[in-house]
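Summary for the steering committee. One of the milestones for this cycle was to obtain a three-dimensional model of the protein with iron/sulfur cluster bound, which we needed before selecting residues for the alanine scan. The sequence and ligand used are listed below.
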Amino acid sequence: MSPARARVAAAAGALRRSSGSGGSAAPPRGRDRKRASPRGGAPAAARAPPPARHLFSDPAEVEALRGNLLSWYDRCKRDLPWRALAATEPDADRRGYAVWVSEIMLQQTQVATVIDYYKRWMQKWPTLQALAQASLEEVNELWAGLGYYSRGKRLQEAARKVVSELAGRMPRTAEDLQKLLPGVGRYTAGAIASISYGQATGVVDGNVIRVLCRLRCIGADSSSPAVIDRLWDMANVLVDSSRPGDFNQALMELGATVCVPKAPLCGECPVKQHCQAWRRVEKELAFASQKLFGKPPPVPDVEDCGVGDCPLCLPATEPWDSSLGVTNFPRKAAKKPPRAMRTATCVLERRGCHGAPEYLIVQRPSSGLLAGLWEFPSLPLAQDLQEKKEREELADHLQAWIGRPVAAKGLQFIGEVIHIFSHIHQTYVVYSLHLDRDVTLDPALSPSRWVTEDEFHASAVSTAMKKVLKAHEKQRRKESSPVKGSKRKRGTKAQGAGSACPGAQLSLRAFLRAPTAP
Ligand code: SF4
C-alpha cells in the first residue's frame, strides 16, 4: 500500500473508531458557530456508528476525489485578493494576518461584497501592528456596511493581543490559533492554519456542509452537533496533506460556485462520480426512461444505507423527494423566526454654514447590537404602541438630546424602513424635524455631532441608518416636486411647514413657540 493510501486508510479507520464512541470533537464555538452551527441535538446520531455509505472509507476514492477537486480548482478558481496574498506573501505573520482578515470578513458576507472592503482594509492596516494601533472608531468606519459589526471590533482586539502578548507572532497551528486568539473558532483556526501555514487540517463551513452532505447523502439535521462532528471528521479525512490550504479552498469554492444551494451545476461538477446524491438522481432517471420505453425496469436501487433508523439518512418523516433531486441534501431544522422590533428614529436636520443640510447623529453604547456605531436619535418602541404615544415618546427622547421641549405634532412622519439583522426583524419608524442651528447639544450625554451628508456616509453608520437617510431624502424630493406633491399616510406638517417652503429651517423662536404636547 502506498504511503498516501496508508494515511487515508488510517484516517478512515480513526473516523470509524471515533464514530462508535459518539463523542468526537466539541462542536464549533464562538463565531464559527455561524459557519457550521449546531442547533439542537441528535443524540442517536452521536451514539450509532455511521454506516459505510456515509463515510469515505475507500482510500482509492479519497485519492481520486482529491485529484479531481484540486485540478478543477487550479483551472477554475476565482482570482481573489486574499488568495494572491496567501500565495505570495513571504512573511508568515503577515500571511496569517491576511488570511485571518479575509476569513472574518467572509463570515456571513458574500465574496463580491467583501473584495472592496478587504482591499481598503489591507491598504490601511497591512500588518497586525498597524491594526493594533488603529482606533475602534476607524475600524467601525471602514467596516460600516459590512454587517455584523462586532467582527471588526473583535478582530482588532485579537490583533492587539497578538502584538502585546505574543510579540506580534501569529500562532501557527489550528489548535493554538483557537486557544490563543479571542473570537477565533474552529473554522477560522483551521482555515488560517491550512491556508497560511500548510497544516493538514480540515474546515467545515456552510459550503462544505452542503457539499459533504450531498457527496455522502447525509440527510439528518445538518445543524445538529452530532452531524457537524461527523462532517469535521470527514473533512479531516479528506484534506490533502500536500496541499491542505488549496484543498480546503477548493471544497468551499465548489460549494460557492457549483454545488450551490438551489440549482447545483452537477453536470459541471468535478467530483460527481464520487457523489451519492447525484448517483441516486441518475439511477432514478435511468429507471424512468427504461419504464418509458417499455423495457422491464430493474428494481431501482435507491441506495438507502441499509441500516434501520440510520441517524444520518433522511428522516422517515421527510423521505427522499424525487422532485428535489440532489437538493434533498442537506436538511436543516427550521430556523427560529427573527424577533420583531420597532424603533422610532428621527432625522434631525439644520442648515449648515453654507446652507447645506446637516444631520444630528449620536453614538450607540459600546456593547450590544451595532456597538459604537452612529445613528439618528432612536428609541425602541413597544410593539403595540399607538401612533400618538409613539410620537410623544420620541418627542421626549429628542428633548433629552437637545435640551428643549419638542412638539410631538411637529414631528414629520417619513415612513417605515425595514432592516433584517440575523435574528431581528427591525422596523424603523422614521420621522424628521428641522431645527434652528442655534440649538446646542448637551455634552453630558453620549457623544453626538452634526454631519453633512458626505460626512454621514463616511462615518461609522450602519446600513440601516443609510436606508433611513435615503427614505428621508426621497420624501424631501417628493415634497419639492410641484406635480406630485406629498401625500403622507400618517401625515403631519413638518415643524415650520406653515411656510411656503417645506424645506425652510425653523427659527429658534418659532421652535420654542411650538406646543410641547399634542
Ligand atoms: Fe454537488 Fe451535484 Fe457535485 Fe454532487 S454532483 S457534489 S450534488 S454539484
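Key point for the committee: The pocket of iron/sulfur cluster is lined by residues 211, 214-215, 258-259, 264, 266, 269, 271-272, 275, 277-278, 326 (CB under 6 Å).
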